[in-house]
């Protein structure tokens, strides 16, 4: 399992053959994409707490992607989890888990909330807009973070004798002002450089498709294509 540490404005990511984790370290939040056999053990080896998993995404309903899911959910129940678990998948996963619980005579101490995936916007969480693109019951995901304005340079504004108040907020939002003497106050001169945001494509297909090519345009590709 490979570990890639990104900067603090983006999640760190861990790779696996069939599943991987997005870990938002500052928020102590984990998103799990697919849950192959041994996924739980690999997370423990890399010092990730399964209790921090808040969302599970299943890109395709096959044995490789869900073989470790029932065991992971059972382990969360054993550690007395109470927080709701959100699961995003195509139709059929809820019935599979219900049959698995009945066969193993297992009940969870927390609630599972199932979201049926279809092409389009899924949610907004951790400053990321998440979109799904489905094709033949296989899902690919696109994560887009919003632009963040740079920190306002308060000391510089005071040197220009600018009165505190709504003016500071306008300058931070990159507004410009024409003063009576003809001089111009440019907002970008009083803020640090803006963070333009980030675009992340998650592609878990064996072969490239038109969907994967289109959503990966100008993106950081964070999920490797599967190997046979």
Automatic annotation (TrEMBL):
Coiled-coil positions: none
InterPro entries in the record: RibonucZ/Hydroxyglut_hydro
Swiss-Prot/TrEMBL keywords: Plastid
Listed GO MF terms: 3'-tRNA processing endoribonuclease activity
PANTHER family in the record: ZINC PHOSPHODIESTERASE ELAC PROTEIN 1
Protein name stated in the entry: Ribonuclease Z
Organism field: Dicranema revolutum
